[in-house]
Amino acid sequence: MKKLKVLLTTAKWKLMCIESPKERMKMEEVSKELLSIKIAFLVQRRTSSHAVEEDDDGEGIGVRVLWVLVRHDGSAPLSLPCLTVLEAQAPGLDVLTLLCGFKLDILDFDTNQFGGVLPIPVGNLSTQLTELYFGSNEISRTIPVTLGNLVNLIALGMEYNLFIGLIPTIFKKFQKIQLLALNGNRLSGEIPTSIGNLTQLFKLDLDENRLEGSIPPSLGNCQNLQILDISQNNLSGFIPAHLIGLSSFSILLNLSHNSFTGKLPFEVGNLKKINQLDISENNLFGEIPSSIGNCLSLEYLSLQGNSFEGSLPSTLAFLKGLKFLDVSRNNLSGSIPKVLEKLPSLKKLNLSFNDIECEVPTEGVFKNASAISVIGNTKLCGGVAQLMLPPCPVEVIKPTKSLSFKLKIAITIVVIFFLLFSFILFLIGGKNQKGIHLHWAQQ
């Protein structure tokens, strides 16, 4: 769905009603005729209540565009009950005060140049508001608690601003919310446990902030999560098994660039639908669990920059759709599993800076030297010529002794044992005979 752009101004409001799409003038054409007047498109939903649609040229389909000169004194209309969808470019956040009387469903102020503080009256917007977007602006200070009044929100986008302070606990009121984007700010403190009460969450973006502490166990209650990104923070502690084992994840789980420690839980194998898994740049150790082979929909797997050890699990062979695998800068050892050259979709493989040894395969992804990286593994050999690795040493096969030779040895041992046994019996028998003769002689 594309929403019609809206240019708002507090100077003049001009509205026009055009019933037929053929009669509507494009926004650019109207602007040329009314150079001194800023333009406001106010869009109402169709009577069928379907979403407003728009083609690539900005022409609405089945909607009414209102265009009527209301006042010359600079004041706004007192009410526009038909207004439900508003995507706007406005000179400042003060316009929010003017919109408090509108029964809006969707309000989109993404990608403006808003600065300053989000005004408290934002909480006085219509309670029927379901989507609110302030992304990619320069709004600063803390997030106002009055936002908690908008209890029917299903989507709140406040990403890439300059918000500071804690994540407000009033977010627990958003029982219907499915998308919450607070990434790209300067939020600090811990992830509130109340986030776990938002059981309808589909997407949660908290990345690129200054959050600390551990992942609250309550986050595992969000059984509908398909996207979770908490990367690039200062989070620590163990990765909760019941979180990484949420089978609902189907798009992205990104825990990278934090300070998580401990082992990667075996429950990671529950992510059977996950497309992208990124746990790179943490302090994880132990072996990569074999259950990773259960993530059958996985296409991108990033485990680099940890302290994983042991061999790469052979269960990677089950990841037929895997396109990208990065396990560089760990403590992995052993040989490169031959199963990797049989993965049909693998396009990029980074094994660099580990302690992997033996021969580099030459089939599959290993055919293309630019698709793989093995530098920093000093015990590797072979591979395609472009890798410029030393040749693998030729294994000298010692000739095996023939069966007849072994048989001769066995027979010889048996004969020697038989002769020795016979000699002992002879000695024992001789002593017995001598004793008998002596006995008869004495008689």
Automatic annotation (TrEMBL):
Mark the transmembrane ranges. Answer: 409-428
Q: Which GO terms describe its molecular function?
A: kinase activity
The reply on keyword Transmembrane helix is yes
Q: Read off the InterPro entries from this record.
A: Leu-rich_rpt, Leu-rich_rpt_typical-subtyp, LRR_dom_sf, LRR_R13L4/SHOC2-like, Plant_receptor-like_S/T_kinase
Keyword list (alphabetical) reads: Leucine-rich repeat, Membrane, Repeat, Transmembrane, Transmembrane helix
Give the residues annotated as coiled coil. none
The cross-references to SMART domains, in alphabetical order and at most eight, read: LRR_TYP
Membrane recorded as keyword: yes
What does UniProt give as GO cellular component?
A: membrane
Subcellular localization, per the record? Membrane
Residue span, Disease resistance R13L4/SHOC-2-like LRR domain:
216-356
Membrane topology label: Single-pass membrane protein
The protein depicted here goes by the name Lrr receptor-like serine/threonine-protein kinase efr
Per the UniProt record, the lineage of the source organism begins with: Eukaryota, Viridiplantae, Streptophyta, Embryophyta, Tracheophyta
